[in-house]
Design a protein that fits this description.
This is DUF3108 domain-containing protein. The longest helix is centred in the C-terminal third of the chain and has 10 residues. By secondary structure, the chain is mainly β. The chain contains 2 helices and 16 strands. Helices cover about 5% and strands about 40% of the residues.
Amino acid sequence: MNRAFIVATLSFLALSCLAGSSAAALAACVPDQHRSFICGNGKDAIRVFPETISPSGKLAFGWRTSEGLSTGQAEPPGDVENVLIRLPDGAVLGRLGGTYWATGEMRANRYDLIAAWSPDSRAVVEVANSRWDTDSFRFYAVGDPDVVTLNLHDLVEQAVRAKTPQRAGKGRVFRVREDLPVKLDADGRLRFAAILFKPKSEEPALGFRLELMIKAVKSSAAARVISMQPAKLPD
């Protein structure tokens, strides 16, 4: 089988399977002093990442903890969970793979999170990176009432390593570059850059520019690599 056409396995997130306040409407989302929004109250409160708001203005990524939110210079008091949230009513639509947080004055050190939305806000790709690794690289199709999620990480890492000589790839970590453009078109075409690199090493990273085609139909989704080229990427 042509490795460029590896099909990713899918998983389906039914709203009824979400933990906690799954799919339940929280208190309305209200603006805070850091140009963001707080949805809900007490331990159920969620803080929105303003840079992840969808083109429609109705969806975004946010974070919460088991012990409620922290503010100012304080670190989160409990385990951090990232979620996909609907802003008009504060409903949690799905759980994300990352654990990034930001209060407006402090943020998780050496963690990054981006949301690459389709122009119609019907789909989004999450890239959640920690110091060395890509912790979550996932596609979400936002339907009514369900959200379908697809893990892209393993598909892309396997394809990149298959194009890399075993000796050259040994000891290298896979990472999606969150600091370079990640673009999701309305037709499901995803463009991004990825690297294989050695942490704490001066050896140049092995760079790649990739395109995936992602299709979501009802309760399923699949992806395939349609283009992958070695590339010299900026440091």
